[in-house]
């Protein structure tokens, strides 16, 4: 099971979990596309990863909720490398508010990045995957694809939605050799999570330590954060699995926070 010379597009991969997945894929010899909001950050990540890995990376500027930018970015990949084997729709944000205080504009922004982003990138990749007769689509879900938490109405709604979209892609894509799966991580210490600690402490009226130990890790079996490397390993499994037996699934990697 390896990704040598496979063209893998990862959204939101200039930092955090997406960057870790890019690193894992490149170590395996993949040709990786770092797609992120800012070209300079994406280019820096691509250059650094290419210098270290077996494979290589290019950078693409892409706001995943902008159809024109998504289509232009995917065209650039196909013009450069001729195909797309793996899509990891990973770009995401977090916004926390109580429901009664949730600004509608922020609700729409979050849903657009997570759900429109997954839809638009999938839609743009599918014709190339169908033409090749193969492809792996991976969505970055969350334990919040299966569980709910206070303050996270938009995020929980979006992450549950990704399960449905992945199942439809599995059914429509099967005849064309395309599979779709969802990774559901527990809390991983990235900028997205660091930002939430003081915000949740304020909204819930508790200390930052309590946010970490009770809210974030309280339900895990060992009070440990999931790591970027843990998530990247699952992303590697879904991308490199040799057949399409593994489709329409979601895999929770969360130190036992959620068990199914
Ligand atoms: P992060 O903030 O560290 O990185 C997110 C990346 O996405 C950044 O590089 C950012 O520039 C990019 N991005 C944001 N909006 C974008 C847009 N519109 N178009 C393109 N790129 C955009 O976050 P992270 O923790 O690495 O999260 C990555 C994914 O993992 C998200 O979907 C998140 O919901 C999911 N996730 C994170 C955790 C966690 O605990 N960190 C847990 C479960 C799931």
Automatic annotation (TrEMBL):
Superkingdom, taxonomy of origin: Bacteria
InterPro entries: 3-OHbutyrate_DH, NAD(P)-bd_dom_sf, Sc_DH/Rdtase_CS, SDR, SDR_fam
Molecular function, one GO term: 3-hydroxybutyrate dehydrogenase activity
GO BP annotations listed: monocarboxylic acid metabolic process
Family: Belongs to the short-chain dehydrogenases/reductases (SDR) family.
NCBIfam families named in the record: PHB_DH (TIGR01963), PRK12429.1 (NF009093), PRK13394.1 (NF009931)
The protein's name: 3-hydroxybutyrate dehydrogenase
